[in-house]
Design brief:
This protein is mainly alpha-helical and 148 residues long. It has five helices and two strands; from the N terminus they run H-H-H-E-H-E-H.
Amino acid sequence: VTCDARRPIAMFGYDGQGPSHLLRQTDDDVWEIDCGGDVAGNVKVLLEEVVKIVGEGVADAKIAAEAARRPPPPTMPRDAKLNPVNLCAVVACAQPARCVVVDESLTSGGSYWDQSAGCPQFTHLTLTGGAIGFGPPASVGAAVAVGP
């Protein structure tokens, strides 16, 4: 769910070279709602409607079931040379539960997926094509959104 934001556009949306807008209103999973400026109030109403449909506690039960299937937590590499695999293991070992990991790596972060598979639940935001400089503002936004 994205609230109070402009529609995404293509990074290199040159005239005459295909669409520059990435969403079409005909997409089934794209809904644009004019909430008249009360974004927070409308998000609360949306949340209440979702809870009516799926019930309270459904997300907590799903999280518990996923945790039971999770592999063991990663182990901190000791006395090993620093390489991309060990670097990803160190990051995975240091991250707290329910953290937001903003991953701007491309070449050195490939093993992070395997290294973090046993970590407690967290959110992983990855770099998208052409998103140079994505990491710092995304990290600040995540820190503000999640809070202390």
